Description:
The complex is a heterodimer.
Chain A (H helix, E strand, L loop, with lengths): L7 H8 L12 E7 L4 E10 L2 E10 L2 H14 L5 H5 L2 H8 L5 H19 L12
Helix pairs in contact in A: 1-2, 2-5
Chain B lengths: L13 H5 L8 E2 L2 E2 L1 E2 L10 H14 L9 H20 L8 E4 L2 H11 L9 E5 L8 H4 L7 E5 L10 H6 L4 E7 L11 H10 L3 E5 L11 H4 L3 E5 L10 E5 L1 H5 L11 E4 L4 E3 L13 H17 L1 H18 L6 E3 L11 E6 L4 H9 L3 E2 L1 E3 L4 H7 L4 E5 L6 H18 L1
Helix pairs in contact in B: 2-10, 3-10, 11-14, 12-14
Amino acid sequence: MGMDMYAENILDHYKNPRNFGKLNNPTGTYKDSNPLCGDEVEIQLQLSGDKIDDVAFTGRGCAISQASTSMLTEQIKGKEIGHVKKFTQQDIVSMLGISIGPTRMKCALLGLRTLQKGLWGMSAPSDLTNLQ
Amino acid sequence: MHMGSVPRNMQLDISQMRSDFPILSKKINGKPLVYFDNAATTQRPVQVIQAIDRFYRETNSNVHRGVHELSERATEQFEAARENVAKFINAKSPNEIIFVRGTTEAINLVAYSYGKKLRRGNRVLLSLMEHHSNIVPWQFLREKGVELDYVGVNDDGTLKLEDYYGLMTKQTKIVSIAHVSNVLGTINPVEEIAKIAHEKGSLILVDGAQSIPHVSIDVQEMDCDFFAFSGHKMLGPTGIGVLYAKESVLEQMDPFMGGGSIIKEVQLNESKWNDLPYKFEAGTPNIAGAIGLGVAIDYLNVIGMENIRRVGKGLTEYALETLPEVGDIEIYGPKNSEDRVEVFSFNLAKVHAHDVASIVNDYGVAIRSGHHCAQPLMRRLGVPATSRASLYAYNTKEEIDLFIQSLKKAKEVFN
Lengths: 132, 415
């Protein structure tokens, strides 16, 4: 952990986030924050039926939370909405391709949690790091 | 004690002091540990660790009410620790020392027990640099119509003292203030604030969690009504802390928790409260913790609080001088070692606080990042989070150098 976390792809997504910005006519806007680090993201979806036609996000926070959300938007664009529901913590870890300790997992999961909570009221996976 | 005493004003032998702390010689990620998270919790010297071990091996028994030998010895040690605490902060009597779990419980005790006496329209005066533990317990009183006011913070990280004159009203019943900020390291002029509070007929609680490890405390000179602190931030164990309060104030207050120890006589529908301090110590206390805290105080006395403060000032001056070398670094809090302790919150321009902490961890450096349980202060500073390096007298200039190297690495990664 530590420096290994800041792999090239993570830093690339952090410095040049994909799908960054706002949509003109979003079907839904979902916002959440991680009070532990002060990370915030807002994700917008444009749906046609069950298909995610477009997605955009804005936010500020640590490299892990922002890069992870950026990658997530790439993964779900053009997919069925059900795809987001099935996404797991392990999927996020594989997507990032780095090892993440328990205290930073919350950062990594912020984007996914924002969507799953906003769309279906799903609670986060076991959440020891939410303690303040 | 296993160490020789250090005369006042003699140079403190830091390497000898460090050797009393087993954890300081540990390696983290293959690097020597640089422990800069002392404002969260300090480390414990072997003397404290051994005292706890010895208690459980040789004396363990419940205190009070037991007439057998072990219980008498445990009671003796527990009460000796209380006397030790009383002397350390210059309380008038051990009856003014209430053992609690920590600062948080101490403040909750006051907010509940003294808070019972407050009425709709009464006010409590806090500040924007308080830890959540000196905000949230008071918020509970809003239910009964008590209002909260907040003294502001200047750009240099000091309190807006003039606010006390503006915000104190006849309705203000309690002023509660951190002696030292856990984020900024600022030492607040609590004697002066106590004077203002008393002139206006208010009581004052001083949150001493961050001051008691660094500066010598005299509650009579300070003239505070309450002083709260935690053992684990002053080389003692976790789970033990102290509420000091003037005896006359404690006498006016009802107990915080019901249970054994706090009563003289229990009838079916009511009870008579026990004498001080037991009125406020329901249930079996943290006996080993109190004994460990007593030994931590012995340790601090042998080193000497003057020596600890002097070493701390030296570390502050060195850190404030060298940290700007990192470049694009904003350091919060006073720039003068007189006005602060060696706790530094900072931000690097392009790196989020959490990423800073993760990267320096690779170099064995333990710092904290986040809002430090002080969200109103974060908002005042206009930042979502800071990184915080909190040092103690056993830290060294060489460790500050290593820390600066690791910060330079963090900058490189993100440039």
